[in-house]
Automatic annotation (TrEMBL):
Family membership noted in the UniProt record: Belongs to the GST superfamily. Omega family.
Name of the protein this chain belongs to: Glutathione S-transferase GST omega1
PROSITE patterns: GST_CTER (PS50405), GST_NTER (PS50404)
A GO BP entry: glutathione metabolic process
Key words, A-Z: Oxidoreductase, Transferase
GST C-terminal domain ranges (all copies): 101-234
Name of the coding gene: SFRICE010915.2
Pfam families: GST_C_2, GST_N_2
GO molecular function: glutathione dehydrogenase (ascorbate) activity; glutathione transferase activity
GO cellular component: cytoplasm
């Protein structure tokens, strides 16, 4: 398996006849869709792209030049993780990832919306630290406390219930990366277990979910990528060992 990121001038690999995801290996938004596809045991290929030097054909599937983008039929694509993931959950209902209760689905969307401030604080801390302000640290921790309170109120192992669902797979890619912040000198963002015991236990439970375990990267790996990007030379291919194109088959859906 290769995790080489294709860039400007590289040819688009031939279409393999199944779902194809355009992603960047260190992008939390792309990871959201990977986790959903894994959880649904879908068969798909992955093409990783260099977002600093984007291949020209990416715009055919994502007019904004962002990832993830999903090629659902040859030459036809949709983009944005939230749009893709709802589409996948409705198109492939055998492993449902959303509640059948409209109110619970709305509440899950509110959880994700309220978490956006935490995500913004993370990006500032990781990639624009000179702009970091005290109120951003406060926003970050308030958001984590609110998420922990929601977990406590629901009283289930995961936000979705006994098993993780769309809301869990939407938030976890960021929680995965938060653990890298102290490793890049941002100790004020640490998830101290004495304060976040329930949340830390939730994160640890998510790490061993099969859909997550297939794609999870350690805090040390995320820290290395953050450092490389901040030096002006993001090392997109730090995980690639094969030197061949990154077509990544998934287990065939039964």
């Amino acid at each position: 398996m290769s995790e080489k990121h294709l860039q400007t001038g590289d040819a688009l690999p031939p279409y393999g006849g199944k779902l194809r995801l355009f992603a960047m290996r260190f992008c939390p938004y792309a990871e959201r869709t990977v986790l959903v596809m894994n959880a649904k045991n879908l068969q798909y290929d992955t093409v990783f792209v260099n977002l600093d030097h984007k291949p020209e054909w990416l715009l055919n599937y994502s007019p904004k030049g962002t990832v993830p983008a999903l090629e659902y039929e040859e030459g036809k694509g949709i983009f944005d993780s939230n749009i893709i993931n709802v589409y996948l959950d409705e198109k492939y209902p055998d492993v449902p990832l959303q509640s059948t209760d409209p109110l619970r689905r709305a509440e899950d969307k509110i959880i994700v919306e309220l978490f956006s401030g935490v995500q913004s604080a993370f990006y500032t801390a990781a990639y624009n630290s000179h702009a970091l302000q005290a109120n951003m640290v406060e926003t970050y921790h308030k958001g984590l406390v609110a998420l922990q309170d929601t977990l406590r109120a629901r009283g289930t192992k995961f936000l979705h219930g006994a098993t993780p669902g769309l809301v869990d797979f939407t938030l976890f890619p960021f929680l995965e990366r938060f653990e890298a912040l102290p490793l890049v000198g941002k100790s004020e963002f640490e998830l101290v277990k004495s304060k976040y015991e329930l949340l830390v236990n939730y994160i640890e439970a998510m790490k061993i979910v099969p859909a997550v375990k297939l794609y999870y990267l350690s805090p040390e790996t995320h820290a290395k990528f953050i450092e490389s990007r901040n030096k002006g030379d993001a090392n997109y291919n730090m995980l690639d060992t094969s030197g061949v194109c990154c077509m990544r088959p998934r287990k065939k859906k039964e």
